[in-house]
Amino acid sequence: MRGPWRATVLGSQVAELLRRPGRFAATGLSLLIAAFVVFGAVTAQQIVTATVVDTFRGTPEAVSLVVTPGDDGEDIGEAELRAIREAPGVAEAVGRLDGGAPLDGSAVERYLELSADPGTGALSAVRLIEGTYPSGPGRIAVDTEAARAYGLAPGSSLTLLQPASDGEGTRRVTVEVSGIVRSTTTNAAGPTGHAPGPRLQDILGVSGYSRVDIRTGTAPSGPESAEPAERIRQAVPGALVRSGDEVRQEEADAAVADAKDTLELVTVFLGVAVGAAVLVATSTFRIVFARRVRQLALLRAIGATPRRLAAALVAEGAVVGLLAGAAGVLAARGCGQLVPPVAGRFGHDLSAPSGMPPAEAVLTVLGTGLLAVLAVLAPSLSASRVSPLQALRSAAAEQGAAGGGTVRTLLGLLCAAGAALLAWQQYDGLPQPGDAEYDRFTALTGVVLSGALAFLALIALGPRLVRPVLAAVGVLLRRTGAAGRLAVAGVGGAPGRAASVSVVVALGVCLVGSTLTCLASLNAYERYRQAVESPADFHLYPRDTGTLDRSLAADLAAHPELAGVTAFRAAEAVEGSRSVTVSDLDLGAVRSGVSLTARTGSLGRLAPGHVVVDADHAHRLGVRAGDRVTLEFAGRPVRLTVAATLPGAGPYGGNFYVPAADLTRMGADPAPTTVTADAAEDSAEGRLRAQRAITDTLTGPQRGDGRVIAEDSAAAAGQSDDLRTMATTVIMVLGLTVLVAVVGVATTASLTVVERKREFGLLRALGLGGAAVHRMVTVECALYGVLGGILGLALGVPYSWLVVRVAETSAPFSLPAGHLAAVFTALVLVTAAAGVVPALRASRTSPTVAVAQAE
Question: What pTM does this model have?
Answer without folding.
Answer: 0.64
